[in-house]
Design goal:
Layout lengths: L4 H10 L10 H13 L7 E2 L2 E2 L2 H7 L3 H13 L1 E3 H8 L3 H13 L3 E6 L2 E6 L5 H11 L5 H8 L5 H4 L2
Antiparallel strand pairs: 1-2, 3-5, 4-5
Length: about 160
């Protein structure tokens, strides 16, 4: 559940220094901007479910899911075998985590023969993409892209 505008402002006022008599304008502006971006009415319905910040961040709390989503953000679309190679995890482990992301409408899948390709869900909210882009720039996640680049027999030809 997200805070109403009044509750967000009241929370911001409690965060100001005790000796301050005037409202902390920075906190007020931050909460107002956050509320404006993430109003409940702004949450899109995808397949009958909403993508809320709480569900989004819970889904990405696992390292495997976070790294998978960041790879999909940078690469566009990947086969499960590519994610297995890049993350150095087993196929059942990767598939289970991708299934959880699919249930939360963070990724979408497409079956091509026996292969399943994943991409970020096309209806993912803008605020969620902004969060992913800011995290995706971290140096830590570039090692997975480097590992993916060294994958022999990438699925361009192998998975089709």
């Amino acid at each position: 559940m997200f805070l109403s505008r009044q509750r967000a402002w009241n929370r911001a006022r409690t965060l100001q220094p005790e000796n301050s008599t005037e409202p902390n304008r920075l906190i007020q502006a931050a909460f107002s901007a956050l509320y404006a971006k993430m109003r409940i009415s702004a949450y899109p319905y995808i397949n009958g479910h909403t993508v809320t910040p709480e569900l989004f961040f819970r889904a990405l709390a696992d390292q495997t899911r976070l790294n998978s989503v960041l790879l999909l953000l940078n690469e566009g679309e990947l086969c499960v075998c590519e994610l297995v190679h890049a993350l150095a995890q087993t196929q059942p482990h990767i598939s289970r985590h991708l299934g959880q992301l699919r249930e939360r409408n963070i990724v979408a899948d497409q079956r091509r023969g026996q292969w399943v390709y994943y991409r970020l869900h096309p209806d993912l909210p803008d605020w969620a993409l902004e969060v992913l882009r800011s995290v995706g720039d971290a140096e830590h996640h570039h090692r997975f892209q480097k590992r993916l680049a060294t994958m022999p027999n990438r699925p361009i030809a192998a998975c089709d």
